[in-house]
């Protein structure tokens, strides 16, 4: 079957393309922005990519068009599909029908940490010899691909609350029907499709409604929004993590790189790994709870976590030039920015730390998070904010509220000059964006040479 995917370079759609190819389909796709790491991964799989949405790519007609949620009415390819009556479906629906049917799905949902936690969980099951399938919104370094079918009933999926398609406004995760579900955390996000936090809570409750009574729901004790979701009705056993929960940790190092795991008050062992930050400790705890549900004893899960290598673009060290270390990070919400910088600060001590932040997500562009930004960067020594041309609010006014030195730049060249004038051997530079950021990482490394 020839499947053509509109919006193929999104992390979800690109991963779905890999699975379709593995099932033996002829897969092609197009996107407005074709850029790594997804474009590289797809080309390596032999998937033909087209830049842009010219309807000519749909002639001759494919057997099925999978339409990504970034596509909207008025897009020339979408209009062509509708006018010609071509068969079409959303990505989550295709996945549910052709990959997840009849499998033991382990879903990881939440505002933050989905990609990292689903990567951890897939790796723990792999380490235990369970050869899981997975679909992850990033490239886990333990696997080097973002998706595979796997050889057993187990399938780990990053379960996103974003909508499914222009014709299906339910959250993607409603399609997945998990047996094991991690609800990591829940804050207001996706201001382009949700009016407020209660609207997101309702979608999370739609997910809870689909989990069987023989399944398991895992959530931290520290998230009032998730507590409200569970109180709307839950027909599934629940395990909790964190203070007062069944799963707890005892930090052995402040930066989160070493901690003891306790289940129902009994020590299960110690995780020692390269990760930092309290958020990753919380992700690990949820992972161990989910893995135990499918038969992985905690001690084996702990051994796997100690060999976990994170995900590309999650505090990934991309260069070290003249003693200056450059990291690439996906953080694009104040909470994620704060926890990431906190973890790095605890690891590097008093070393100089420069944060470069691009407010690129739809919620950021709408200004939904601007009030939380000044507080999110307190662990940096200085911050460079990038103001893209289409930002609809005053980034300079937000930067002025920061308690650490902050400047706004509207060009990559300006950012590079600033870093060159400030960075010295021993400085750590974190570049935070949920996009390609115009290749800033490579350009900065080159300029520092």
UniProtKB/TrEMBL annotation:
Pathway: Cell wall biogenesis; peptidoglycan recycling
Top-rank taxon, per record: Bacteria
Residues in Mur ligase N-terminal catalytic domain copies: 2-99
InterPro entries: Mpl, Mur-like_cat_sf, Mur_ligase_C, Mur_ligase_C_dom_sf, Mur_ligase_cen, Mur_ligase_N, MurCDEF_pg_biosynth
GO function terms (MF aspect): ATP binding; UDP-N-acetylmuramate-L-alanyl-gamma-D-glutamyl-meso-2,6-diaminoheptanedioate ligase activity
Record SUPFAM superfamilies: MurCD N-terminal domain (SSF51984), MurD-like peptide ligases, catalytic domain (SSF53623), MurD-like peptide ligases, peptide-binding domain (SSF53244)
NCBIfam families to which the protein is assigned, alphabetical: mpl
Family note: Belongs to the MurCDEF family. Mpl subfamily.
Identification of the protein by name: UDP-N-acetylmuramate--L-alanyl-gamma-D-glutamyl-meso-2,6-diaminoheptandioate ligase
Native source species: Pseudomonas bijieensis
């Amino acid at each position: 079957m020839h499947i053509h995917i509109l919006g193929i370079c999104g992390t979800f759609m690109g991963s779905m393309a890999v699975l379709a190819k593995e099932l033996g389909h002829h897969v092609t796709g197009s996107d407005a922005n074709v850029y790594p790491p997804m474009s590289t991964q797809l080309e390596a799989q032999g998937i033909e990519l087209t830049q842009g949405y010219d309807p000519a790519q749909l002639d001759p007609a494919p057997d099925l068009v999978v339409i990504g949620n970034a596509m909207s009415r008025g897009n020339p390819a979408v209009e062509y599909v509708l006018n010609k009556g071509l068969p079409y479906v959303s990505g989550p629906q295709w996945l549910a029908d052709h990959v997840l049917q009849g499998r033991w799905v382990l879903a990881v949902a939440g505002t933050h940490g989905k990609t990292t936690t689903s990567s951890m969980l897939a790796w723990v099951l792999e380490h235990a010899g369970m050869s899981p399938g997975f679909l992850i919104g990033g490239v886990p370094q333990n696997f080097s691909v973002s998706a595979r079918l796997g050889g057993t009933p187990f399938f780990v999926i990053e379960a996103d609350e974003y909508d499914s398609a222009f014709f299906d406004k339910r959250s993607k995760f409603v399609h997945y029907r998990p047996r094991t579900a991690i609800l990591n955390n829940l804050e207001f996000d996706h201001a382009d499709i949700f009016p407020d936090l209660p609207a997101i809570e309702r979608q999370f409750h739609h997910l809870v409604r689909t989990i069987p009574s023989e399944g398991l729901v895992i959530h931290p004790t520290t998230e009032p929004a998730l507590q409200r979701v569970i109180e709307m009705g839950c027909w599934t056993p629940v395990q909790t993590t964190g203070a007062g929960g069944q799963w707890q940790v005892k930090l052995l190092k402040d930066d989160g790189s070493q901690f003891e795991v306790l289940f129902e008050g009994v020590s299960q062992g110690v995780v020692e790994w390269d990760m930092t930050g309290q958020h990753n400790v919380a992700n690990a705890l949820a992972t161990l709870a989910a893995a135990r549900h499918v038969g992985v004893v905690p001690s084996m899960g702990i051994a796997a976590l100690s060999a976990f290598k994170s995900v590309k673009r999650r505090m990934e060290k991309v260069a070290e030039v003249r003693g200056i270390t450059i990291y690439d990070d996906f953080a694009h919400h104040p909470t994620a920015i704060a926890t990431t910088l906190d973890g790095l600060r605890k690891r590097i001590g008093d070393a100089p730390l420069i944060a470069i932040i691009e407010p690129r997500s739809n919620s950021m562009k709408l200004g939904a998070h601007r009030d939380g930004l000044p507080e999110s960067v307190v662990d940096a020594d200085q911050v460079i904010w990038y103001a893209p041309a289409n930002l609809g609010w005053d980034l300079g006014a937000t930067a002025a509220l920061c308690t650490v030195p902050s400047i706004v730049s509207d060009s990559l060249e300006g950012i590079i000059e600033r870093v060159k004038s400030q960075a010295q051997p021993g400085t750590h530079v974190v570049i935070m964006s949920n996009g390609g950021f115009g290749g800033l990482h490579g350009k900065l490394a080159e300029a520092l040479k």
